[in-house]
Specification:
Layout (H helix, E strand, L loop, with lengths): L7 H22 L5 H25 L3 H8 L11 H16 L14 H15 L3 H9 L8 H31 L13 H29 L7 H25 L8 H5 L8 H14 L9 H7 L4 H11 L4 H18 L8 H8 L4 H12 L3 H10 L1
Helix pairs in contact: 1-2, 1-9, 2-3, 2-4, 4-7, 7-8, 8-9, 14-15, 14-17
Length: 385
């Protein structure tokens, strides 16, 4: 005789588990790219796979009884993933945006809630004998839970939300700093990571409201249907994981990592006038900006200057970030080309390529910002003089 273990809503949870586990193994065993980032993303996915599994075990209509009969010890095991997934996503984001990302002792603080949760569950559940556990599970009602368990759940969701906010702040910081390291950023597509971070942040905020909802229902005796938000979150997670799998396959390796040490030491070094003169002379004589792949590290190697010192010189003396500094030279070079009679019929795409731009949109936008008119308008104005 067959037994039905899952209802329609449970299928979303099962599909999420399947996606997370399958993609995690793909990242570890097959996918090329930054190994550390792949491993962190895989660990995040595995931890997130444990969350719907915990939901099925504790609240699945048919699966709960099946789990009790199988072993009461599997209850609350997978719940520990709640304390890990947000931390792992934060570490993953940092590993993408910082090329010198390394784990530090202070990072262990993010794991402290997880460790405290393990101690709590060990003392309050795993030390009990099997018969006691089965009796507790069979007589379980969410309304009968002590208040402190609901408070722990609320703290858990707030902690996950806090980690999500840190991810968002790290990404915003990266957007500000990338122009200090690269002159061409057209191939850096942050849309997929923004959606991922914001999507999971929304899910965590929903979890906070769900927790507040059932706390209000139980403790204040107000009727609030908090289950709808929880079910909506299950489907959102399923679609977000699908989105992550589809987009990260193609674009996660396009990230240009920035140097955290360079950022941290921006105000610690003095500027040597000789370095300013050497940089200016090198830019005029060797024109390294004509290479559309030029980066801060490349230019630092060419000028025999530490990257952080070069960044200091550009930011503090020239009052520009690296993106603006290099592209200002490219604009002057393009003006020189457009001023020559023999280049009267040269196309703007050819001008763009010759001076080092990799994007027509960036070329036109930066030219107009610098000169006050588009390249085409500039050439026409020069011909009319």
């Amino acid at each position: 005789m067959s037994t039905v273990l899952f209802n329609t809503l449970d299928l979303a949870l099962l599909f999420t588990i399947y996606q997370c586990v399958l993609f995690a193994f793909f990242l570890i065993l097959i996918k090329k790219g930054k190994k550390q980032s792949n491993v962190l993303l895989a660990l995040f996915l595995l931890s997130y796979a444990a969350i719907p599994l915990d939901t099925l075990i504790n609240f699945g209509e048919e699966f709960r009884q099946f789990s009790i009969d199988f072993s009461p010890n599997i209850f609350y095991v997978f719940g520990s993933a709640y304390w890990l997934e947000a931390v792992l996503l934060l570490f993953y984001v940092r590993s993408l945006i910082y090329k010198d990302f390394r784990f530090k002792k202070v990072d262990l603080l993010y794991l402290l809630p997880f460790l405290l949760y393990l101690i709590y569950e060990t003392n309050n559940w795993y030390m009990l004998d099997s018969a006691t556990k089965i009796a507790i599970l069979n007589g379980y009602h969410i309304e009968a839970e002590p208040f402190y368990t609901r408070f722990i759940n609320l703290f858990r969701e707030c902690f996950r939300t806090f980690c999500g906010l840190l991810c968002l702040l790290e990404l915003r910081h990266y957007q500000k700093q990338i122009k200090n390291n690269f002159a061409d950023i057209e191939d850096v597509d942050l849309t997929w990571l923004k959606i991922l971070i914001v999507g999971f942040l929304i899910i965590r905020l929903q979890a906070v409201f769900v927790t507040l909802g059932y706390m209000t229902s139980i403790d204040l005796h107000l009727t609030i249907d908090y289950s709808v938000l929880g079910q909506l979150s299950n489907f959102m997670v399923m679609f977000l994981i699908s989105f992550l799998i589809f987009f990260s396959l193609g674009v996660s390796n396009l990230f240009h990592g920035i140097d955290r040490a360079t950022i941290a030491n921006q105000e610690k070094q003095s500027i040597d006038p000789a370095q300013i003169s050497a940089l200016t002379l090198y830019m005029q004589e060797h024109k390294p900006y004509l290479n559309h792949l030029l980066t801060l590290d490349n230019l630092a190697a060419q000028t025999f200057m530490p990257p952080r010192q070069l960044s200091q010189v550009i930011n503090r003396h020239f009052n520009k970030n690296f993106f603006e500094f290099i592209n200002s030279y490219r604009i002057e070079e393009s003006k020189t080309l457009l001023n020559k009679e023999e280049n009267a019929k040269i196309t703007m795409l050819e001008v763009m390529a010759q001076v080092g731009f990799n994007s027509k949109a960036t070329f036109n936008t930066f030219f107009k910002k610098t000169v006050g008119m588009t390249p085409t308008q500039y050439r026409k104005a020069q011909r009319e003089q």
